Fold this protein.
Amino acid sequence: MVRDQFPKINAAIQKLVDDLNTKLAQGGSNFMTNVYDPNYLLNLTTTQAPQADNTTKLVTINFDGTFFDVAKGTNHVSKNTVFPARLAGMNSNQVFIH
């Protein structure tokens, strides 16, 4: 099973990324995307800056993950009061997945 499925992992991840990129392109240039229902858009903004752990070689990205109710114009939760730290001279509006 491992020998059969392991080589397919790269293609599966690439398909997920491509599908997400397609959905994002359909939603315009913002961080709201239609995943399941056009009336409830998924908010892809982050709640804090990404964190890298050199011991595990993992990068943690915390997406907001709430759904925006288009008809009511709200996500039904309180506005975020904790914002990611910004570094002077650094681009802070792009996410790259490798």
Observations:
- The two ends are 25 Å apart (CA to CA).
- Strands lie at 32-37, 40-43, 51-53, 58-60, 67-69.
- Residues 94-98 have pLDDT under 50 and may be disordered.
- The longest helix spans residues 9-26.
